[in-house]
Amino acid sequence: MKWSTLAIGLAFTVALAAPVIAQQSLGDVAGSIKLKRPEGESVVIDGDSVAQSRRRTTGRTDVDLLRDVVGDCLAETTALRDLVEETRDGTSFYRDPWRNRVEEVGFLLDGALEELGLIRVDARYQEAYDLAGRGAFMAGDALEILQSAIAEDRPVFSESKNLSREAVRFFEEAQSAIRAALRADAAEKDAPSIDPVEANRVMTALCGGQNGVGSSGFDICVAEQRAAVDAMTGRFPLEVGLDAAVFNVIRHNCRFEWSDNFVKQDRCERNRIAAKKARQ
């Protein structure tokens, strides 16, 4: 089956099929990539790199694995694209060193795509996985076209250039989607307790700048800031009637937006909690 046909099928897989089915399909296709090389010729592959890649998959299905494998796919697809670009000189295609490098990149890309097909992700990372899947099909198609051209000794592979460029773009978009999902995950986790040393520094900088250290206005300002810290310290998801993840997102956002003023940070939390509860 030609990779171009499979790439079209992927669009329907991503849009219509369940995530597990899409992932199984990608795994099957990735595993179908075969290296093409005339008999009697060989190429040296970095066995340590391949072994390390395979070991990384064993027993792991987490986000770190997805991030690592998408990075590998991007690196090898970029290398493939660059190899195609080198043929503009009109002679590289016929030289053994260039063909050996295509073979090595193809071997490593094959392994990376196979690993990608074995990964399972939850809903938050499905968009990133689907983007990587589209890149995988295009990268595999680009590789097959180039390998066929070498096997037939005919430099007809212009579509490989276009496909490898598009594959790079999809892998880069997948990386961006992974980073966005990681930020969303982090925002739903419990925020660390307010550090008293850092809190004193913030209060002194804010209140001293407004009133002057040692003034009555400074003392009042610090007292208000401390009261806000105490209010936030005693505020919990169950107490305010919100899901922990929703509460944590509010806390993280307010802490980021008002890192230099605890009174405004506390007000931000109260207002957004009230708004969220009103919509429930």
How does this model look, in words?
- With 280 residues, the chain is mainly alpha-helical.
- The chain folds into 2 domains: 3-188, A middle domain of Talin 1, CATH 1.20.1420; 196-279, no CATH class.
- Helix content is 76%, strand content 0%.
- The chain contains 12 helices and no strands.
- It has helices at residues 3-16, 19-31, 47-57, 63-86, 96-118, 126-152, 158-188, 196-211, 216-233, 237-240, 244-257, 262-279.
- Helix 1 (3-16) runs antiparallel to helix 2 (19-31) and helix 4 (63-86) runs antiparallel to helix 7 (158-188).
- The longest helix is centred in the middle third of the chain and has 31 residues, at 158-188.
- It is elongated and about 85 Å long.
- Mean pLDDT is 83; it is low at 1-25, 27-45 and 47-55.
Topology summary:
Blueprint: H1 3-16, H2 19-31, H3 47-57, H4 63-86, H5 96-118, H6 126-152, H7 158-188, H8 196-211, H9 216-233, H10 237-240, H11 244-257, H12 262-279
Helix pairs in contact: 1-2, 1-6, 2-5, 2-6, 3-5, 4-5, 4-6, 4-7, 5-6, 6-7, 8-9, 9-12, 11-12
